[in-house]
Amino acid sequence: MDGGTHLHLLPSQDSQTEAEGSFAQLYRQAHGKAGLSRLGVGAILDWLTRRGGDAQGIDTLLDDGLPLTSDNRDRVKGNLFLSYLFHDLRDKLRVHMEAARDAGDGPFAPLPNGLTQQQKLNWLRAQACISLNLVLDEWAADLAGKPAPACPFARMARFAKGFFKGSALYARADHDMVSISKTGSNTALHMCFSLVEASLHLGLDMAVPAWRDAMWRSRKELKTLAAGSLGMIVTFLHTSKLEPEGESAVNPTTGEACAFKVEHAPDGVRLRLDARSITPFSTGNDRIYTGCPAFHVSGMIEMYLDWVLDLAIHHDLHQPERPVIDRPWPQRWHHGMAAE
Q: The pTM is what?
């Protein structure tokens, strides 16, 4: 073991911070029922940091008593490498998002005329993902051009690029370092949009400050979902009808594709994920999981949500759409029956 680094699996018993019957509790219990255990990645990220992004020897580290198949090891390694690299990506994304907001371009540019509220949100989903993907391309190219010894993230990027290229698991899915980063980051953005759309679908009609507070109180739900295994996340999205067949993105929110419900808590209104769509799932090969890479980067999921909330408010999409013409019923219906 390097420098006394010890791996540990997070406990599966109930947490004192979880409410009885909460999504967080039932989601974690479902992982246990599926035979899955979450790896505490903090020690490994510290190990990589001490080594300046040099991942040589990580297989020996992971083989220290963990029941890993070849595919499971590759999935864990891929998530660990991205978790490390996303610490560099986070700040570049924040700068890009702030610049787009200040300039009024990208997804902050005026929307096409004649769109319904749902069409506007669909447009914003697409534009936000396009904008995000451009940053990911620039970020990867920038890392490739930096000297590895002087930049820990450049060193890790080179190692990760070779790993993804040589991994049978990621080759079957036709993923490299950039494409897998795009898939995960786009899905995170889509879930933030699903939260916004759910607030409209469920009838939250609030002024901007109150609405934003309610959405911000709901951010824990996104983080809880992101902490799960890939199979459990995908299964939840599929069962809640948020994931279209054969796609990595999620559906727009509709009557049968709404994964949230309203909770009126003492500290205010929030949205909670609906636990009825939780289904224990395991491939049978992957017993150890890490959670999404962004989950392990402080403030990254919050940054995605903050950006989506800014977009919704900027385009006046924080309240349910009202009819263009709002007039009272004809006089003859006032008493519940038609006048003769």
A: 0.89
